[in-house]
Specification:
4-stranded antiparallel β-sheet, single chain, 6-stranded mixed β-sheet
Length: 303
């Protein structure tokens, strides 16, 4: 395993941001950490990026401990922060060259690395553009190119799609997948965006610093039985117990809506509308999503 986390915990005063978290990531995988804001993802990211030490537990990247061997870890990781780390007044080329010089590269070696990064992220025609003039999606691509200059084994990405519209988000996700396919880079990303999470090979769901569930997106959604039926009524609290009694289903109320997981949901909809005429103001059916998995495991919504 190229990333190993064992019983990791971290506290900010009396608040526990991470609570005994453990997981492992094999080489060449896109591994997502999915959870709501404030769930501990960014704290874990900072620890893996050697920016802070955990209160308890261990983390290793490429076999090196992030606390006792930070220099070896930094040579093996590229980091894309949630907040922009580019110099907005420099060109794309100047940003990449400045980053390369920080790693000690110069001359022909630095030029080769810059050209390679520009080509891989399709930025060659933007090399002379001032960063401040670029769109959000292009800036994110420059951030990724910058993180790849020293050819890391692991790319850490903290909320890579934050602030991007859906089209640009898909573009960034495609670039991440291309990196894995063409260079074998292991990608570990934090996210609370379902679209982004769906494209990962494997996901770890985190809530209040704890492990909730782990698996591929398909495996996690398979844990939710059948279809999901969501009903809005004039009195949601009153309908749920009636559904439990009459149909022997596990009806739950969340955010003012009554929710039921059941096989053949389309048949259930016809039956329940007939059973409670006039009581249901709207009703919807969908296949299980990662949001449903999170709700089932924690009793809380992801977003």
């Amino acid at each position: 395993m190229i990333v190993e986390v064992e019983n990791l915990s971290h506290q900010y005063g009396s608040r526990k941001a991470l609570d005994g978290l453990s997981f492992a990531v094999p080489k060449g995988q896109i591994f997502g950490l999915l959870g709501p804001n404030g769930g501990g993802k960014s704290t874990l990211f900072r620890i893996l990026a050697t920016m802070m030490a955990p209160s308890e537990g261990k983390a290793r990247i490429g076999g090196f401990d992030v606390v006792s061997q930070p220099q070896q870890v930094r040579r093996r990781i590229g980091v894309v922060f949630q907040t922009q780390s580019l110099d907005r007044k420099l060109t794309v080329d100047e940003n990449l060259r400045s980053q390369g010089q920080l790693f000690g590269f110069s001359g022909a070696d630095l030029s080769r690395r810059v050209e390679d990064a520009l080509a891989r992220l399709r930025l060659a025609d933007r090399r002379s553009d001032i960063v401040d003039t670029l769109s959000g999606g292009l800036k994110r691509r420059v951030e990724i190119a910058k993180a790849l200059l020293h050819e890391p084994e692991v790319l850490l990405m903290d909320e890579p799609s934050t602030g991007l519209d859906p089209g640009v988000r898909r573009e960034v996700t495609q670039h991440i997948e291309d990196l894995r396919k063409t260079r074998g880079v292991t990608v570990l990303l934090t996210t609370h965006i379902l679209d982004e999470a769906e494209r990962c090979d494997r996901l770890l769901l985190i809530h209040q610093g704890r492990r909730v569930a782990e698996g591929s997106p398909a495996e996690l959604k398979a844990k939710v039985g059948g279809d999901v039926v969501v009903m809005e009524t004039s009195s949601s609290d009153g309908l749920a117990p009636q559904l439990r009694e009459r149909f022997n289903v596990d009806a739950q109320v969340h955010d003012g809506h009554t929710r039921v997981e059941i096989a053949d949901g389309h048949r259930f909809i016809a039956t329940v509308v007939e059973a409670f005429p006039g009581a249901i103001t709207s009703i919807a059916l969908h296949k299980p999503t990662l949001e449903d998995v999170f709700l089932d495991e924690t009793g809380e919504q992801l977003t």
